[in-house]
Amino acid sequence: MDDPRLIEWLELAERALAAPVEERGEVLSKVAERRGELQGSLEQTPPTEPAAADLARRLSEAEEALGQLAQTLRDDLQTQVAELRQVRNAAQGYKPARSNTPAFISKSV
């Protein structure tokens, strides 16, 4: 029989992968917290039998997909931060025209 903690770990990974983009941050946070608890439990009391081959394969695939998702999110975040820095740096050199400087001076004056 497979350890229920490993089955729960797989379910958490699959839930994180299936989460809608809008909720992904919140779901990943909750999943990471619960996975930490499961990891501590598995380290304190390891399973008495090795996991079934199918469970191990599915868990490995889900973890690999989560790693790729995390890398994609990191890359997107770095791109957005770089764009924000570029906009901020461009805006720092901007000095609006002084309000007391006339925009047009008539020759008739």
Give the helices and strands, then pairings.
Layout (H helix, E strand, L loop, with lengths): L3 H15 L5 H21 L8 H40 L17
Helix pairs in contact: 1-2, 1-3
Can you give a write-up of this model?
This protein has helices spanning 4-18, 24-44, 53-92. By secondary structure, it is mainly alpha-helical. It is rod-shaped and about 100 Å long.
Produce a short descriptive summary.
The protein is mainly α and 109 residues long.
Features:
single chain; 109 residues; mainly alpha; 3 helices; 0% strand
Give start-end ranges of low-pLDDT stretches.
none
Total domains: 1
Q: What is the number of E strands? A: 0
Shape: rod-shaped
Sheet with the most strands, sense and barrel status: none
Helix content percent band:
55-70%
- The rounded Rg comes to 27 Å
> What's the helix-strand series?
HHH
- β content, as a range? under 5%
Average pLDDT rating: 85
The helix/strand class is mainly alpha
> What gap, in angstroms, lies between the N and C termini?
97 Å
SS element count, helices = 3
